Amino acid sequence: xxxxxxxxxPTGSLHLGNFLGAVQKWVELQNSGEDAFYSIADLHAITxxxxxxxxxxxxxxxxxxLLACGIDPEKCVLFQQSKVQYHTQLCWVLASLTTMAxxxxxxxxxxxxxxxxxxxxxxxxxxxxxxxxxLLYKATLVPVGEDQISHLNLASFLAKTFNKRFGxxxxxxxxxxxxxxxxxxxxxxxxxxxxxxxxxxxxxxINLFDSPEDILLKCKKAVTDSISAVEYEPEKRPxxxxxxxxxxxxxxxxxxxxxxxxxxxxxxxxxxxxANEIIEVLxxxxxxxxxxxxxxxxxxxxxxxxxxxxxxxxxxxWQDVSRKIGIGRNQ
Length: 331
Ligand code: TYM
Description:
The chain contains 13 helices and five strands. The protein has helices at about 15-30, 40-45, 50-70, 85-95, 100-105, 105-115, 120-135, 150-165, 210-220, 240-250, 255-260, 265-290, 295-325, and strands at about 5-10, 35-40, 75-80, 140-145, 175. The protein has a three-stranded parallel beta sheet. A two-stranded parallel sheet has the order 4-5. Strand 1 (about 5-10), helix 1 (about 15-30) and strand 2 form a beta-alpha-beta unit. Helix 7 (about 120-135) packs across helix 8 (about 150-165). Ligand 1 binds next to strand 1, helix 1 and helix 7. Its EC number is 6.1.1.2.
């Protein structure tokens, strides 16, 4: 089996972009017997201000969400990042192998600069911590959405840099991006930007466990153009194409099939039809989530077991790293 690692921040609800861009793949990889580690990246979340109570809840909510999506703690290691101390320790080591100039160039940082006035130091280190997440488990494959590619590039740069200076230690990690069009879902309010947890407008995204009424309303209100035909033309008609992608990815029917089915249908009617179909696909997930969120003792236990299993692996890498850089004991 291959070593897989990925992570998700426990802020806000899981939305269709997270699910179709990443989590669905996590479940597939876990089910096909790969050796998978999935982390709830709470240390990444605090690089921007968080309300402590909301964050605490968010960690539980994300745990329940991932389980509801089919993540199975018997088949993979599901854990809370901050419970394994070696993430921050390796982050520090890797931070010493890169420069402020390089970190300052990140595209994601530039985007944040438009929203937040004063960027925390931790935001500069954000991708270095992500590299530590990956390298600590010597992962070779990292299933993520397209927006994470630049972070993955830094992780592979840091792996190479470390190996060159201290001897072969880390395999080079590779991003594993969906082949299909769901690698970057768009906002329902502005099809030129990505569907995101941090968008102020809740109608811009469909959360996985939204009520049927909300899903219907959000689909009906989705911004499309003035042409009424339903087509998949992502360049020319990003709004309607995004809906077709969501519809296709959730039902498993190819984009072409969907487009043929709806020839002659007006986009307004299509929005209602696709909403009704995705409501049914998501219904069992929402039911499972509502059940799990009322079982805090179970969730607690899942995270406890996950942390122990993750720690065992992380500790091994850390001992090797600390010895190689000259701060560990030579046993
Ligand atoms: P986060 O929490 O923003 O998102 C989790 C995953 O969802 C994907 N995603 C999308 N995919 C397609 N379309 C969208 N609109 C969309 N929005 C989000 C993201 O690409 C991601 O895969 N930095 C990471 C968390 C992280 C991590 C890691 C990832 C921490 N450590 C180690 C991989 C490896 C993040 O903020 O994801």
